[in-house]
Automatic annotation (TrEMBL):
SMART domains (UniProt xref): FN3
A Pfam family this chain is assigned to: fn3
InterPro entries, sorted: FN3_dom (IPR003961), FN3_sf (IPR036116), Ig-like_fold (IPR013783)
Protein name: FNDC7 protein
Amino acid sequence: APEIPVIEKAYSKLSSSITVEWRAVPGATNYMLTAQDGDSFIETIVKNSPGTVTGLKPATLYRITIRSINSGGKSQPSPFRKVKTVLAAPILSVHSPSCDSIAVSWKAVHMAAGFSVALMRSDGLSRMLKENTTNTSLVFTNLDPGTLYTIKAYAWNANGMPGDDFTYNQRTSPNAPVDVKVAFSSGALRAVVSWMPTEGALTYSVTVSSGLLELRCNTSSASCIVPSLLCSSQYYVSVTAYNDAGSSKPTDAVSLKTIPCAPVNISIEEDEPGHLLVSWSSVSFGHYYVVFVKSDDGLEVHCNTSYTQCHFQSDCGFTYFISVFAYNKAGQSPLGDIFNYTTAPCCPSDFRAMFVSSDTVRVTWAPGRGADLYETRAATGGSAVVPCKDPAMACTLWALQGSTRYSIALRSVSEARGSSTSCAPQYVATAPCSPEIKNISKDGLGVISVLWQSNSEEATYIVTARGEAGLWHCTSTGNSCTLMDLPCGSAFSVSAVARSPAGQSLPSYSVPLETAPCCPNDLILTQVTQSVTNISCSVGMGAQTYITTLESPKGQAKCHTLQNYCLLGCITCGTNYTVSLRAISVTGLTSSCTYQGYSSSACCPSGVKFYRLSNNGIRVFWQASDETINYNTDLRGSKGNFSRTPSSGLSHCDITEISCGDVYTVVVAPVTDKRPKLTFCPKKIYSVTCSGSSVGMVIYRGKSNAKHI
């Protein structure tokens, strides 16, 4: 281990550390410094001298030792030295109670006998002020306002040894601003306040007060705008400077009178025709008044007075826009309410009345100056007056009595000032009233009678039936007329008008008219089976459904359908029928149609059988439904077809030279002169065998399922 080092010096410059100096020990690589206070100690490893032990307590006596260290170990501790740490620095609390003073205070420091406090401008432009005291506070006075000062303080002990020092920067509060000026902006009701900047001020606060109302404006510049001032008011304006040390005293208040408020209680009277009187209430801080009167044609006049009323000339039909302003040294009052006054309107010119219909007259005119609307009145001698009001230069008088002479007068009306005198009347006679159709009756096929209520002896009435099929007219001076040759199956709208020398009435209300549906032109009956007949017809105009009836002494067959065809069953063969058809419209109108009679076909024979003849032939036998009818026999096979029609009254026919070994289909049907061959009679199948080269056995195979064609 290295040798024991020897302490040469040990001292404290800071309250939390002790510095030690020693001579270097050969072979030592590090040194251990130890500061012991009673049972506690603090160790620090350093490289060489001097070394400092930190983390100590202020004003405390420590035993200091040192040991040298190398790779072989540690030396023994050196002889100790007793060293006391210096006093702790006082912790300052500083503020500027006024613009030329700084107050400093601190808490007592352990073991301190006294304190030294020094103050100097931070920019070095003043001498240092130093005070020694045993108190814990003091005040520096006669300082520069708004200036940053550096303050340094330390404590000393009974031996006069100084302790740690404490440094603090403090600015004095600013001085009050000077040269305060107030400029009033009348248009925006605001004040622009300006002043000379004061040393050390960071911000300024402008206070504008008037009684209970107080407005503030804060800024960092040397001017400020205070908005939202009230008219007709007196304010007092002061400015206070601020920095981080505090505020200055407020400046002396500067008086500010704002512009007067706009006059109120304005009244406008036309005290006599052609003269207007404008009056208002007095305004606080108002020295004089100016009244502006502008007519709607652009002409403007004004009146300057210190009183509260003015007189103006006026003319009819004009609207005057009136505003009143108050003035003082601060300027003009704000714009108050703009009043308008309209004089009585002038009478319109170029009056014209035109007939439109039996109960309507169209009136037009040139505008009357100042009129908001026009009132037109139509009256008969002693009857009720019919008024019409409209802002346009035209009016339609309606609900007049037909065939009546009216006197029509016109007045210009102003909503504010009433109406003008009546203009010269115009006389007009109205056309007949619209007729009212009372009844429409059907007198026959395509013949319609129309009855209406007549309301004018001078009128001629025209009735019109209008539909897709065209127009039909009839004319009468009475109260009825007849429409002829209207087509079937058609819908019409029937209306009537009345004509007189004064004009034509409006059409009457239309009355719907429907003619009965048309009968189909063609009706075709085709027998499908012995008991079923197909009926088809052409479309009947206006018909929605059809009812077809076949009637005979043996009974009746009927079908009702939406189509123009149907299958009619229960038909008796060999019977004569009468044929009728009813065409029905959507509304239930019916047309009865008759057609040529219909005869059903003769009945098919029964009991058709095959017999073999001795001469290599076949006999076909049947039971006839009517002995007066001829029958036709068709025999069809793969080796040949045969057709025979025996004489009337016979119920069989013979077919010779028939081929054996084949299957034959046999149909026996009545023969008709006008109709095609019947195809719906039943078909039977027989097999004809061979016996050698001759016909053998005849075997019945049943009925054919083939459809009838």
